[in-house]
Amino acid sequence: MIRSALTLLLLVVLFSPASVAQTPDLYDETVLRTVELTFSQSDWWQQLTANYASETYLQADMTVEGTSYPGVGVRFKGNSSYNSVGNSDKKPFNIDVDAFNPGQELLGYKKLILNNGYKDPTFCREVLSYHVMRSY
């Protein structure tokens, strides 16, 4: 079986209020996390594309900082962020951590949104703006 791997860098892009902050916090702005998705299907990209409209999840295994999360659901997400990049590989992902493995969580979260920053080539605008907002 051919295994395809996709490594994504997860940059903190969501505001995480102190009342829900965890230790360790998935959205710690001082940490750059590596998320690796491994699909058993060799045509996983074509399947994700075909499943976009139906929002059907494709099963994959996810590894975050050396910890494995088998049976996560992966699909493309978005509308303008998906369509505005055309045929580019810079697509946003929606990951359901417990889609095929009920009860599974990543640091307390069951869903991850990996935005593609289609209007932000730096991938830093959201993190910086939330950092400034928290300061004031």
Your description of this structure?
Strands 1-2-3-4-5-6 form a six-stranded antiparallel beta sheet. The protein has 136 residues and is α+β, with helices and mostly antiparallel strands. Strand 3 and strand 4 (67-76) form a beta hairpin. 16% of the residues lie in helices and 29% in strands. The termini are far apart. It contains three helices and six strands.
The quaternary structure here is single chain
Helix amount: 10-25%
Largest sheet: 6 strands, antiparallel
| Class by SSE composition | alpha+beta
Order of helices and strands: EEHEEHEEH
Key descriptive features of the protein:
single chain; 136 residues; alpha+beta
Show the helix and strand layout.
Elements lengths: L3 E7 L22 E7 L4 H7 L7 E7 L2 E10 L3 H4 L9 E4 L14 E4 L10 H11 L1
Antiparallel strand pairs: 1-2, 2-3, 3-4, 4-5, 5-6
Give a concise summary:
With 136 residues, the chain is an alpha+beta fold. 16% of the residues lie in helices and 29% in strands.
